[in-house]
Amino acid sequence: MKLNETVAIVTGGASGLGEATVREIIAAGGKAAIIDLNEEQGNALADELGDHAIFCKADVCNEQQVTDAMDACVASFGRLTAAVNFAGIAIAVKTLGKDGPHPLKLYQKVIDINLIGTFNVSRLASERMQKNTANEDGELGVIVNTASVAAFDGQKGQSAYGASKAGVAGLTLPMARDLASYGVRVNTIAPGLFLTPMLAALPEEAQEALSKQPLFPKRLGKPAEIAKLACFMIECAYLNAEVIRLDGGIRLP
Ligand SMILES: NC(=O)c1ccc[n+]([C@@H]2O[C@H](COP(=O)([O-])OP(=O)(O)OC[C@H]3O[C@@H](n4cnc5c(N)ncnc54)[C@H](O)[C@@H]3O)[C@@H](O)[C@H]2O)c1
Questions:
Q1: Are 9 and 83 in contact (CB under 8 A)?
Q2: Which end of the chain is less enclosed by CB atoms within 10 A, N or C?
């Protein structure tokens, strides 16, 4: 799908990897609806990017709010051709720690936002996409999800986060199979360590230690590098049902 013909909703689009992807889509001539809970950053970004961007405050887990955001996208740009799922949260809590077992509510919250939120947005987006006119490749839409390398080599304290991201990786193939007859592709990015507000909050020594972990190059990833892969997943009509690690060869210890 050509980027300049893309109308994307980008969840988590107000910050970090999502923000970089919104910028990349718009720089290539596409349009984007930023879906996020952070109203201040979302509105500021949409204002900065002009009339190819709108901001819609919505919780990815909330059916009505996501439906309203998609309605706003279609009202502004006429259609919805790509759903790019970046909204997510990360926690570090052990299954059993000094304060007792992992609080169940917190576990459920991570699964809700990272996994069920991704599924909620994708299922509702696919319904909109089936109304599009097919392009020359027969495509009606494309879905890009975000897992993490923690889906495969999760560390201590990541039983919730790792499981949520393994769920996102695991839904990629069945969802691609479900949506193939509708002309919708589904792919997932599994990022390594990227310098976003999530990691920038860590002390400098911690950032430095993390930046030594990739094989090569020995640095944290740049959000623009994820944005390029997200855009490639939108553009490349032959890429489907794939989970791609983008991580400088890192394997978390
Ligand atoms: N930064 C990394 O190194 C890294 C590594 C692997 C995976 N990831 C994944 O990439 C995605 C983006 O991460 P980031 O580093 O850009 O984080 P970030 O915190 O900068 O951005 C996440 C955005 O998601 C939004 N959000 C959170 N819950 C939401 C909800 N329920 N509904 C709508 N919006 C919600 C937040 O407001 C925020 O703007 C996440 O899914 C994260 O797990 C990040």
A1: yes
A2: C
Residue having the nearest C-alpha atom to atom 23 of ligand 1: 12
Domain count of the fold of the chain: 1
State the residue range of the domain holding 191: 3-244
Q: What is the pTM of this model?
A: 0.97
Ligand 1 probe mutation, 9, 10, 11, 17, most atoms within 8 A of CB: 17
Bridge-based pairing state of the strands 7-11 and 82-85: parallel
Atom of ligand 1 nearest to the CA of 60: 32
> Which residue minimizes the CA distance to atom 31 of ligand 1?
59
In a domain, 250, yes or no: no
Task: Answer whether residue 71 is part of any domain.
Answer: yes
Structure confidence by residue, pLDDT tens digits, 91-133: 999 999 999 999 999 999 999 999 999 999 999 999 999 999 9
What amino acid occupies position 3?
A: L
The catalytic residue positions are 161
Closest among 11, 99, 88 to 55, alpha carbons compared: 11
Two tokens, residue 61:
């887990």
